[in-house]
From TrEMBL:
<keyword id="KW-0028">Amino-acid biosynthesis</keyword>
<dbReference type="GO" id="GO:0009082">
    <property type="term" value="P:branched-chain amino acid biosynthetic process"/>
</dbReference>
<comment type="function">
    <text>Acts on leucine, isoleucine and valine.</text>
</comment>
<comment type="pathway">
    <text>Amino-acid biosynthesis; L-valine biosynthesis; L-valine from pyruvate: step 4/4.</text>
</comment>
<dbReference type="GO" id="GO:0008652">
    <property type="term" value="P:amino acid biosynthetic process"/>
</dbReference>
<keyword id="KW-0663">Pyridoxal phosphate</keyword>
<protein>
    <recommendedName>
        <fullName>Probable branched-chain-amino-acid aminotransferase</fullName>
        <ecNumber>2.6.1.42</ecNumber>
    </recommendedName>
</protein>
<keyword id="KW-0808">Transferase</keyword>
<dbReference type="Pfam" id="PF01063">
    <property type="entry name" value="Aminotran_4"/>
</dbReference>
<dbReference type="InterPro" id="IPR043131">
    <property type="entry name" value="BCAT-like_N"/>
</dbReference>
<dbReference type="GO" id="GO:0004084">
    <property type="term" value="F:branched-chain-amino-acid transaminase activity"/>
</dbReference>
<dbReference type="InterPro" id="IPR036038">
    <property type="entry name" value="Aminotransferase-like"/>
</dbReference>
<dbReference type="InterPro" id="IPR050571">
    <property type="entry name" value="Class-IV_PLP-Dep_Aminotrnsfr"/>
</dbReference>
<dbReference type="InterPro" id="IPR001544">
    <property type="entry name" value="Aminotrans_IV"/>
</dbReference>
<keyword id="KW-0100">Branched-chain amino acid biosynthesis</keyword>
<comment type="pathway">
    <text>Amino-acid biosynthesis; L-leucine biosynthesis; L-leucine from 3-methyl-2-oxobutanoate: step 4/4.</text>
</comment>
<keyword id="KW-0032">Aminotransferase</keyword>
């Protein structure tokens, strides 16, 4: 069990990130000059969408899936990106190239409704087109988490019904998740395990959540959590490799008694969970055998996807 604080976004320190070049609205500028207006809809209201993607051998893994989610989310909130997915790929590639990156890089692509004419909420005040920012950092997820795992605490904050704010929106406003993370931290854990409105185990504040019980892999129904690209890849991998996988309701009772638990997200791929609410999960120190197996399958899938993208461009 660990007592230091961790997060699923722990990365190895890289001094090159002090001197990054960042894409801001058509220009690539030094980090110190990378700013947006105080009137920006994203800054003022959290009115925007984002995607996190990783660069492997010059390709953004699962680029089409990420663009699908981004364009769907923006359509749902009438946010016109004003670019095609290929134009987005080009600006990301240009930003990565400005930083001399081909692998081990992580981008946060952010699209907001843009600068507003006045400091008020109405979307019609955002009259100047979207703001597009891409931060691409040198990034190697810390491998120490594999041997330790992350500590979760169940928190009162839920990711709720689509009628409040659909959990599928990867929105700039992360206040719901930030509150959950604060609650977890105050309970002495690293990250928050969030339930759904009915009390079933749902997701964490930053990743999707899986348990392994008696050789089966379980995750929530998907109704109240982010439609994570990594989540879907893990489900697909289980299906193609004859690992029984279920998207279903389950409670903390089953989570506490799981043989293994792990989180999924683009940044950390699959991160083992060491404990939930102070209860140790499974008999393993760090990642258990199913988590490790799925990690290997996922790594191979990323390589396959990258090779397919390279072949399509050749
Ligand atoms: C709340 C939440 N859950 C899950 C994820 C993981 O999604 P993905 O696997 O697409 O990175 C994210 C990341 O954007 C997130 O913010």
């Amino acid at each position: 069990m660990t007592t230091e604080n961790h997060s699923t976004h722990d990365a190895e320190q890289d001094a090159r990130n002090d001197d990054l070049m960042i894409f801001v609205d058509g220009k690539i500028v030094h980090k110190d000059q990378a700013v947006v207006s105080v009137y920006d809809s994203g800054f003022m209201l959290g009115d925007g969408m984002w995607e996190g993607m990783r660069l492997y051998d010059g390709e953004w893994a699962f680029f089409d899936e990420h663009m699908d989610r981004l364009f769907n989310s923006c359509k749902a909130v009438s946010l016109d990106i004003g670019k095609t997915p290929e134009e987005i790929r080009a600006l990301l590639n240009e930003t990565a190239a400005s930083n001399g990156m081909t692998s081990d890089a992580h981008c946060r692509l952010m699209i907001t409704r843009g600068r507003k004419a006045k400091p008020f909420q109405h979307p019609q005040l955002s009259r100047f087109g979207p703001t597009i920012v891409a931060i691409v950092e040198h990034s190697r997820p810390a491998t120490s988490l594999l041997g330790k795992g992350i500590r979760l605490a169940t928190v009162p904050q839920v990711r709720g019904l689509p009628t409040s704010q659909d959990a599928k929106f990867n929105s700039h406003s992360k206040l719901n998740c930030v509150i959950a993370c604060l609650q977890a931290e105050q309970a002495g854990a690293d990250e928050g395990l969030m339930l759904d409105p009915h009390g079933f185990v749902n997701t964490t504040n930053a990743c999707n959540f899986f348990i392994v019980r008696r050789g089966e892999v379980w995750t929530s129904t998907g109704d109240y959590c982010m439609n994570g690209v990594t989540r879907q890849k893990v489900i697909d991998l289980c299906r193609t490799n004859n690992i029984p996988v279920f998207e279903k309701n389950f409670s903390l009772y089953e989570a506490y008694g799981a043989d293994e638990a792990f989180l999924t997200g683009t940044f950390g791929a699959q991160t083992p969970v060491a404990e939930i609410d102070g209860k140790t999960i499974g008999p393993h120190e760090g990642a258990g055998p199913m988590t490790l197996y799925i990690r290997e399958l996922y790594k191979a899938l990323v390589a396959e996807n990258v090779a397919a993208q390279q072949a399509a461009r050749a």
